[in-house]
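User: What would this chain look like folded?
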Amino acid sequence: MRVRVEGDSMSPVLRAGDWLVVRRGAEVRPGDLVVARLPADPALMIVKRAAWRDEDGWWLESENQRAPGRKDSWDFGAVPSSLLVGRVVFRYWPLRRGQARWPLRSRRRAR
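Assistant: Here's the prediction, encoded as structure tokens.
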């Protein structure tokens, strides 16, 4: 599926206006970028970094904790696996000169 990024919560990795390809139902590992349904409003989807998994689900984090309006697991806790839509495969638009499409995995260690 295709997803358009809105907002600055994933900056600098993703920016508003980026278009992503998401693989529905793909296996998620710590460090992956994922699309999930917002627990408080499942009609809305969010793009976040899967930080770690515990017995309650996945802990999803924003790259930019200071972004206005950002919502992640620091606000609503772990997200059940049933609310994960899929794993981000790559950004296909816009193309940026001299820049890789992005790091698919964080260099941070999973907790």
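Helices lie at 73-76. If you want, I can go into more detail on any region.
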